[in-house]
Structure to design on (235 residues):
């Protein structure tokens, strides 16, 4: 793999930054400075140092995104912009995909990765990964409705949802809802089961990951090693 590709995949530097750093002697391969950033390396064996920092090789890429409205959480779409379209070109070339789906008009936390095994584990119903959403509904929710939704709502197709947790704000028409499953349009359909309607939905956590308030809508960052380690615990 080319060293500039390696550094870009590891989230260390863009290709332009790598070229500049190489010209200035800032990139070392096994302790020896390279003049150009197109040198080929073996990421599993070679020791790469970028501007004095040793760069650990990670086989997979993990990204946290704050999904904006109107963008679909898919890898491609004939009509709408996808979460992949929001990434820079180098990252669009990796086979990243969103780990779980948010509806087009749902905002917030999406994790993108090319680590199929991890994604499979996190999405498997047997792992009960918690997802917390902030919601607003058209009408206030009564105590009886909260109890019904929390215990298990019967959706229009007869499916009974697993227990969830709702923390309602004082206005009774907004709050947090935490699910341990992810059926198609689940929260919207849960609210419909009590003749109500979701007017705002934003995912704020996914398992151990929390939406990063420093990320504006549409922005993303790489997961930290600590966040990756926490996700890995879901074995
Ligand atoms: N439930 C929904 O209805 N939509 C989402 O995007 C996520 C959960």
């Amino acid at each position: 793999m080319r060293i500039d590709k390696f550094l870009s995949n590891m989230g260390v530097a863009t290709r332009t930054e790598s070229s500049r750093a190489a010209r200035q002697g800032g990139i070392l391969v096994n302790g020896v400075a390279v003049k150009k950033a197109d040198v080929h390396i073996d990421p599993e064996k070679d020791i790469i140092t970028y501007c004095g920092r040793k760069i650990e090789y990670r086989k997979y890429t993990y990204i946290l995104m704050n999904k904006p409205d109107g963008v679909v959480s898919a890898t491609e779409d004939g009509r709408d912009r996808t979460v992949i379209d929001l990434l820079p070109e180098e990252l669009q070339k990796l086979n990243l995909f969103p780990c779980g789906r948010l509806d087009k008009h749902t905002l917030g936390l999406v994790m993108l990765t090319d680590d199929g095994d991890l994604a499979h584990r996190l999405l498997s119903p047997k792992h009960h990964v918690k997802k917390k959403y902030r919601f607003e509904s058209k009408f206030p929710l009564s105590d009886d409705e909260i109890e019904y939704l929390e215990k298990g709502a019967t959706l229009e197709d007869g499916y009974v949802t697993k227990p969830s947790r709702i923390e309602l704000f004082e206005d009774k028409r907004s709050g947090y809802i935490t699910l341990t499953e992810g059926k198609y349009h689940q929260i919207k359909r849960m609210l419909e089961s009590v003749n109500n309607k979701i007017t705002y939905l934003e995912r704020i956590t996914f398992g151990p990951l929390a939406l990063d308030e420093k990320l504006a809508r549409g922005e993303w960052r790489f997961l930290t090693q600590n966040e990756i380690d926490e996700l890995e615990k879901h074995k």
In short: Helices lie at 3-9, 15-23, 89-92, 116-123, 143-151, 186-192, 225-232.
